[in-house]
From TrEMBL:
<dbReference type="GO" id="GO:0008146">
    <property type="term" value="F:sulfotransferase activity"/>
</dbReference>
<protein>
    <recommendedName>
        <fullName>Sulfotransferase</fullName>
        <ecNumber>2.8.2.-</ecNumber>
    </recommendedName>
</protein>
<dbReference type="InterPro" id="IPR000863">
    <property type="entry name" value="Sulfotransferase_dom"/>
</dbReference>
<keyword id="KW-0808">Transferase</keyword>
<dbReference type="InterPro" id="IPR027417">
    <property type="entry name" value="P-loop_NTPase"/>
</dbReference>
<feature type="domain" description="Sulfotransferase">
    <location>
        <begin position="56"/>
        <end position="317"/>
    </location>
</feature>
<comment type="similarity">
    <text>Belongs to the sulfotransferase 1 family.</text>
</comment>
<dbReference type="Pfam" id="PF00685">
    <property type="entry name" value="Sulfotransfer_1"/>
</dbReference>
<feature type="compositionally biased region" description="Basic and acidic residues">
    <location>
        <begin position="1"/>
        <end position="6"/>
    </location>
</feature>
Amino acid sequence: LRGADEKTPEKYAHIISTLPKKKGWANDQYRYQGFWYSGFLLNAVMSVQDNFKARPSDVLITSSPKSGTTWLKALVFALLNRNLDDPTSNHLMLTSNPHEYIPFLEIQLYAKKQIPNLDVMPSPRLLATHIPYSSLPESARDSGCRIVYISRDIKDVFVSLWHFVNKVRHDMKEEISLEKAFESYCDGVSIYGPIWDHQLEYLKASVVRPQCVMFLRYEEMMEDPLSEVRRLAQFLGRPFSEEEEKGGVVEEIVKVCSFESLKDLQVNKVGELQLEMMKMKNQLFFRRGVVGDSKRWLTPEMIGRLDGLTESMMDTFGSPT
Ligand code: A3P
């Protein structure tokens, strides 16, 4: 039962009613602690902030949507569940979508009316969130739990997100136009936007607290997955042994988690993810999986504008992407 002074959906509704509001791509978005959310999502974010207590042994996968979260989930799960005899045999990986075995705190667990009891989950708990670093529950920043962030070229994220949102809303009357979506995106008014602040916050945290926060880049993982997966394994406290290296375990994990392998799994071809508000086809999480796809969709002006914004957001830490 909730205590008398705990935040309740009514209190959340009151807070939301006081927030700055703008029309987003499809519905109203509210600015909360510097970032934009739909009302439904924001309720869940506030519930995570009030109720989620991180354990030092937790592993939190974090990202801005469409940055490669699904891929990172598969990799982290494979790395932490491997055994020498058969490093990628875990049947869950072959029969489930990564969002089933590593759920999002706010989109899946705390989006339900009932507050979930995550105390019953055995350690290490593998969880995910798109919540910005500064809005994470205090325990997630202070407990010493491991946080892995994946960032991606902002232009590719935009194009991936635009495709994804239109496919999710396929039964709606009209498609969201690229131009309209682009304008709001540049203004930062998109889900968990502005993405520049999102990436920079995690980048800074990874510099200040490198033992707890790891900042990965999609493009670097695509270019040299073996090295990046080795670094990730090290960060997670499960470096590859000599025996594993010799046995080709790193290569095997990279292969099982590759775009082609995941996309081809039966569960990702025909399965669906049950969310609180809707069912989502697993295949929507696997579109093209390439670097630089935005060039096919954006005009040179659009590319120049996004790159200009990214440059102007640079600070002493350098470019976030
Ligand atoms: P595209 O739309 O550019 O193809 P998220 O997982 O954060 O929702 O991000 C989805 C993006 O990651 C999509 O990008 C998707 O195709 C790509 N993706 C999914 N699985 C991948 C994998 N195993 N390797 C590389 N990219 C992957």
